[in-house]
Structure formats: C-alpha cells, structure tokens
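Input sequence (249 aa), recorded before submission:
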Amino acid sequence: MVSATDIAQRIVEAILAQRLAPGTRLGEQNLSMLFDCSRTLVREALVRLAARGIVTVSARRGWYVVQPSHDEAREAFEARRVIETGLIRSNGKVDKAALKKLRQHIRQEQAALNGADVGQRSYLLGDFHVCLAECLGNQLLAETLRDFTARTTLIAMLYQSTHDAVQSCAEHVQIVEALERGDVAAAEQLMAAHIGQVQAALRLGAPTDPLADLREALAPLGTPRPRKTTRASDKTPPPDREPYLGALL
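Predicted structure, token format:
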C-alpha cells in the first residue's frame, strides 16, 4: 500500500528530475488514480509538501508546484550556501566508507552525462548534495537539503539556468578530492563557489511589474504606449494544457 510519504517522495523526485515544472497543477483526483489510493491520502502528502515549501494551494484552483519569485530564489541559494559550507566546516572529516559512497555517486553522475536520460542526470546532480550531507553524518540536514535542492531545481527551470551539467559534475569531483586529501577549507571554498556559479547562471533579469498592464491601461490619454516585443522564449503554453501526471511521476 502506498503511503503519504511515498507520494510526497515521488513528487520531490520528479521535481529533481525536472519532470515536474514550476506551476504544474497537481490534481487530487488525478494523483489518487495514479497512485491507486484515496484523495485523503493524496491531500495529506500535498499538505506535507506545502509545509516544506514545495507545493502551494489555492482555495479555488487547487494544488500547484511552487513558482519561486526572485527574492525566494535568492533566499534559497543563500540558505543552501550557509547549510552546505557550514556542514563541511563542522564535519569535514570523512571516512573511507563515506568517500567510497561519494566516488560511486560521481561515477553515476558521469555515466548519466553520457546517457540520454536527462531526468536521471538532473536528479543525480542534485542528489549529490544530499548524499554529501549524509556522508558527513547529518541526516536531518540531508532531508532539509533535499527540499532546498528541489526548490533550486525549480528555480533553474523557471529562470532558464545556463549552468552546464558537465561543469557541475566536475565541480563535485573537485569537492570530493579536497575532502579526500583532508583539505576541509578548500572543500568549503569549492562548495561556496559551486553554489555561487549555479546561482549566477540564472537568467533572473529585472523583476516584472504585476500592475504593468493595468498601469498602462489607466495612464492619462495621450501618454505614449511602450512598444511590446515578443520573443519565442516569452511564449508560454495555454493554461488549459496541463501535462499528464502519469508521464511525469
């Protein structure tokens, strides 16, 4: 029998694999059919994810994967930088078993880079940070990082990150090498740089004005109207076209 924990975990994994995009609607009925369980169980899973900042709910529209704002994107990366560098600084000594696990994870990343499964590649690159926290002996922070990594994955999709997967894997290799030779300070510095480079690759641009259309419409008559240009990247699919959750989860 599926549990609320199983459903929540599958949704987070789908986000890490970039199979669920920001703003995707998570219908209770669809999810209950997909997981062959009651809507009550689905709702419990979604409530848990809402408390973790992964989904949001609207009284009239239902449940949706969050769409982080510019400020939320900045705060998520700041939180990850504090947690991950602090974790390395406090527990930087790793034993042979932990190093073996980290090296195995990196081999999986490298294999995924050579494969065609983009979702698997995305998942493994994000899961490295969770794996590192586990290897550093802090399961609580590992779970926290899983949520933050899911949020930054959504941010990367929403703001069209240009950070290269090969570069990301290479940076993971450098972090593990620093830990292997016992250079905790270098590992911490490399992690800070890695998170900073991922953040810098976001195409945040200038914050949009939510009142722009109304402001333009109510401007005094005779006020020149700004010219609007449409780019292919600005086009979004019609709101009534929602992805089939079975293919995503």
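Checked by second reader. Strands lie at 55-58, 62-65.
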